[in-house]
UniProtKB/TrEMBL annotation:
InterPro entries found in the cross-reference section: Methyltransf_25, SAM-dependent_MTases_sf
SUPFAM superfamilies: S-adenosyl-L-methionine-dependent methyltransferases (SSF53335)
Protein name (Swiss-Prot/TrEMBL): Methyltransferase domain-containing protein
Superkingdom as given in the UniProt entry: Eukaryota
Methyltransferase domain span: 36-131
């Protein structure tokens, strides 16, 4: 992630994430009396939306920049935002077995593989017995990488941008376990049941939506000189048009992406 661009991680800058989330959020069966924990709340767009359906939402994010934007742009009386790591939420005694529901959208792939299980255990610890959680995790299927990893490969081989990003190492860890393996991991982390499915989504993004997506989600973006940022984003857009151009809508890109969607019970 590029946390220096957190202010752009909303609206068009989160079109891809928001589109996927909205297709799955109803799995949670939210009730007006529910208290909800949003782990990795980002700028709080879904947090605020959830708050309109439940009693109270606590949004946590490891990024101070994200939490600041969330407070400034998506506050509401029944929402609390706080900086906190997904791998430590279970350490807060005030949160243990406090929440009816939890959500964790587009977060676990930023957590190193060796500590992903810790995050799952911590989120479970925050739920009341019988509580539910919904996870959406970018998925790598048979070597078909998420567009961000492909973009990183493009930048490293680029005659101009490669000089800035050659030593950059992506911090993404796409989920690559099967449905059955994922169920075993969740049960080993204290979950009583986990309904898992790999869902393919076909997403159409405009130029501004994709540029903001790259600006906010590519961790190498801060390595690019500010004066060259627009040229950098334009080259990424042209690369995306060449590889993901939508013939039906010539100025849009068509991005197929897979996600592991997990509806789990404590």
């Amino acid at each position: 992630m590029n946390f220096s661009a957190s202010n752009d991680y909303r609206g068009d800058g989160r079109f891809l994430q928001h589109s996927v989330i909205m297709q799955h959020i109803d799995k949670l069966e939210l009730r007006p009396e529910d208290t909800v924990l949003d782990v990795g709340c980002g700028t709080g767009e879904e947090t605020k939306s959830l708050a309109g359906k439940v009693k109270r939402v606590t949004g946590v994010d490891a990024s101070e920049e994200m939490v600041t934007v969330a407070i400034e742009t998506n506050s509401t009386p029944n929402v609390t935002y706080i900086q906190w790591d997904a791998r430590a939420v279970g350490d807060n005694p005030d949160w243990r077995e406090r929440f009816d529901k939890a959500v964790c959208f587009f977060v676990l792939h930023w957590v190193p593989e060796e500590t992903q299980a810790l995050a799952l255990r911590c989120i479970s610890a925050c739920l009341k017995p019988g509580g539910q959680a919904l996870f959406i995790i970018p998925f790598e299927n048979h070597g078909d990488s998420f567009i961000l990893l492909r973009a990183t490969s493009f930048l490293k081989s680029h005659e101009k941008w490669g000089a800035f990003v050659q030593d950059y190492k992506s911090s993404q860890h796409l989920w690559n376990l099967s449905v059955q393996e994922t169920q075993k991991v969740f049960k080993a982390c204290g979950w009583a049941e986990a309904q898992c499915e790999v869902r393919m989504h076909e997403l159409v993004l405009s130029e501004i939506q994709l540029k903001l997506f790259f600006k906010t989600c590519l961790g190498e973006t801060p390595l690019i000189p500010a004066a060259a940022l627009e040229d950098y984003l334009q080259d990424l857009w042209q690369w995306a048009l060449d590889h993901y151009g939508d013939n039906a809508q010539p100025r849009d890109v068509y991005i197929p992406a897979g996600f592991m969607v997990v509806h789990a019970w404590k």
